[in-house]
């Protein structure tokens, strides 16, 4: 590649005086943001991340300590702490109503108000530093654009964190107690900010080039343009609309583009002030994530696992895998079936808790066949005559632990379809404690499980487990309602009757109903269900929700409203904690 010859210092080029190196250094020293000093903006970016993670870690530690203290001594929290928690939770739970979000979702995963506010603050932080200081360009030949330098260092500071946020096993998640699937929103948001800063950097440097010797005036211009290619690909191809069309294809191309991007970026920034440090940190994070993941995968599969797979009458796949692995309620694993699609791995949630014995455990999964891998697995089972056994590689367990529910006085557990896999182990754990079947302590004295299914057939596999779990417990202690939304397809199993729901909001009249297990026709009004329990139950209440996007969104916003009622003093419960899970990101 031929670059224009550098103009002679002390001469004129296209009417511009070209200073000597000493003149340029003296000029920059007399103005803000001298080239060498601009690295401070990278430090500002790091401080931003460090402060955010620190606050998240302190809040996480407080809640861990508070739950342990409560479980050990039954102690209560002060009014001021409860109000502060209610405010924090309102911000953390509130999200856009699904009716609006569904139009945005193809382009952007919105997350909660807290995540949106954090990203909006980060956007303002970057924009403020870049554009708020209006010294954007130096005169031609007097040095790099300060705007381009500020955005460059802010973009560099984001790079290692961007990779941490992408990993299944990552330290930010460990410190802040946040599951990797929830950090995905921040990974996508920080990626957007990195792209934004990179574009500002590119634009500013292009303006500088155009004023001097053109858009290809040196090798760093060439490497910069090249690095922009994979970055554009990474950001555009990752938009939810493309990602959801072919997730596995997206994943491989994403990984490939990441490697190309890091390689081209390396040539663009190498030896520029302290940019090597950011690159080494990024490589280290990348290598750490890869090594830890592979190490665990290897360790987990030293003993080979075999999955027994059968289809239910509704087409859902029911998987059973004997294992010695331990897990906690609400967690999931990532499964890879070498005999079906060896290059793909997919997350599925353990639908029952691990037993307390040291003996071999049964992992049980309920899988809804979709178009891709799950569809291929379903076809394999059908071809085998309705059931088959397949070797499976297990990675995990991942995700937040549902054991936290033991620290609450009551629990409302809401599941839509296969979302029961997330909620049922929490239910089983709490109910077992009520029957004193567990050595550990639980404060939960009241549990209500609402499982919404299209047809009763979907629920068949778990009905016996649920009925066994609640036997001997009263209606005051535990209530289970399976709500069947497609009446014409429903049929009863083992004599369970399907009753019509009389209430307008889809809930049966609890005052007339003393059975703690019922199958009903109808669709619950989740918002009024959450609201009414918060007005009936005293003490600390916990809600778990897992289901389709609209289901989770309704529950999150209903819980956010209860937080406002707690703040206003109009709720009966003192506290409401929500753990929601969505089978996508
Ligand atoms: C934490 C978690 C737990 C889950 N637990 C269960 C469960 O217990 N039962 C159940 O039926 N489903 C569960 N899912 C959903 C399940 O993983 C997807 O339905 C499955 O991966 C779809 O595969 P497919 O190739 O058939 O999908 P496709 O038909 O190709 O795509 C359907 C959807 O699944 C998404 N998807 C595809 N592959 C993946 C992947 N590897 N990771 C994440 N999303 C993907 C796509 O983006 C798309 O939105 C869970 C998902 C997550 C994130």
What does this structure look like?
The chain is elongated, with a radius of gyration of 28 Å. The strands form three sheets. Strands 12-13-11-10-9-14-15 form a seven-stranded parallel β-sheet, sandwiched between helices. With 585 residues, it is an alpha/beta fold. The two termini are 43 Å apart. About 4% of the residues have low confidence. 49% of the residues lie in helices and 16% in strands. The protein has 17 helices and 15 strands. Helix 3 packs antiparallel against helix 17, helix 6 runs antiparallel to helix 8 and helix 9 packs antiparallel against helix 11. The longest helix is centred in the first third of the chain and has 34 residues. It folds into three domains: 267 residues; 94 residues, Translation factors (Elongation Factor Tu (Ef-tu), domain 3); 180 residues, 3-Layer(aba) Sandwich (Rossmann fold), CATH 3.40.50.80. It binds flavin-adenine dinucleotide. The site of flavin-adenine dinucleotide has 23 residues, from strand 6, strand 7 and helix 13.
Distinct helical segment count: 17
* Estimated helix fraction: 40-55%
Could you tell me which ligands this complex binds, including any ions or cofactors? flavin-adenine dinucleotide
pLDDT < 50 stretches: 489-511
- Which word captures the global form? elongated
Distance between the termini: 43 Å
**Tally of strands:** 15
Largest β sheet strand count, sense and barrel closure = 7 strands, parallel
């Amino acid at each position: 590649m031929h670059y224009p010859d550098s103009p002679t210092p002390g001469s004129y080029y296209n009417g511009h005086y070209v200073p000597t190196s000493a003149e340029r250094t003296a000029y920059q020293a007399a103005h803000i943001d001298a080239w060498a000093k601009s690295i401070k903006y990278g430090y500002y970016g790091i401080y931003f991340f460090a402060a955010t993670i620190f606050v998240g870690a302190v809040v996480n530690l407080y809640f861990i300590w508070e739950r342990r203290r409560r479980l050990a001594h039954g102690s209560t929290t002060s009014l001021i702490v409860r109000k502060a928690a209610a405010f924090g939770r309102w911000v953390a739970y509130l999200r856009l109503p699904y009716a609006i979000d569904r139009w945005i979702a193809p382009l952007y995963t919105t997350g909660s108000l807290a995540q949106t506010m954090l990203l909006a603050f980060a956007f303002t932080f970057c924009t403020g530093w870049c554009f708020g200081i209006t010294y954007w360009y130096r005169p031609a030949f007097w040095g790099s654009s300060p705007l381009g330098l500020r955005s460059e260092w802010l973009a560099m500071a984001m790079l290692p964190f961007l990779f941490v946020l992408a990993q299944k096993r990552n330290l930010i998640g460990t410190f802040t107690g946040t599951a990797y699937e929830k950090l995905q929103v921040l990974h996508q948001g920080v990626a957007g900010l990195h792209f934004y800063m990179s574009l500002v950097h590119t634009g500013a440097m292009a303006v500088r080039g155009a004023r001097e010797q053109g858009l290809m005036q040196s090798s760093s211009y060439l490497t910069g343009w090249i690095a922009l290619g994979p970055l554009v690909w990474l950001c555009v191809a990752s938009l939810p609309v493309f990602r959801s069309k072919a997730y596995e294809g997206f994943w491989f191309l994403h990984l490939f583009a990441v490697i190309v991007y890091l390689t081209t970026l390396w040539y663009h920034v190498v030896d520029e002030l302290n940019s090597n440090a950011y690159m080494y940190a990024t490589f280290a994070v990348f290598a750490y994530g890869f090594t830890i993941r592979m190490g665990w995968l290897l360790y987990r599969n030293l003993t080979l696992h075999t999955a027994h797979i059968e289809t239910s009458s509704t087409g859902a796949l029911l998987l059973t895998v004997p294992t010695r692995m331990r897990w906690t309620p609400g967690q999931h694993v990532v499964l890879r079936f070498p005999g079906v699609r060896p290059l793909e791995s997919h997350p599925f949630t353990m639908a029952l808790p691990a037993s307390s014995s040291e003996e071999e455990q049964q992992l049980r999964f309920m899988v809804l066949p979709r178009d891709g891998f799950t569809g291929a697995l379903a076809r394999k089972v059908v071809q085998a005559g309705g059931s088959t056994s397949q070797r499976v590689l297990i990675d995990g367990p991942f995700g937040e632990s549902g054991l936290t529910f033991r620290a609450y006085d009551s629990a409302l557990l809401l599941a839509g379809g296969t979302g029961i896999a997330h909620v049922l182990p929490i239910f089983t754990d709490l109910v077992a404690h009520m029957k004193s079947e567990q050595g550990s302590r639980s404060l939960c004295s009241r549990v209500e499980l609402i499982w919404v299914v299209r047809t009763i057939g979907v629920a068949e596999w778990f009905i016996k487990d649920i009925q066994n779990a609640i036997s001997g417990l009263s209606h005051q202690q535990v209530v289970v309602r399976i709500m069947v939304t497609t009446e014409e397809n429903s049929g009863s199993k083992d004599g369970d009757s399907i009753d019509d729901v009389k209430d307008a909001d889809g809930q049966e009249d609890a005052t007339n109903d003393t059975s703690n297990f019922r199958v009903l026709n109808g669709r619950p009004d989740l918002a009024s269900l959450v609201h009414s329990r918060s007005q009936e139950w005293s003490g600390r209440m916990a809600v778990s929700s897992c289901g389709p996007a609209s289901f989770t969104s309704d529950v999150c916003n209903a819980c956010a409203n209860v937080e406002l009622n707690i703040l206003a003093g109009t709720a009966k419960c003192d506290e409401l904690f929500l753990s929601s899970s969505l089978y996508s990101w």
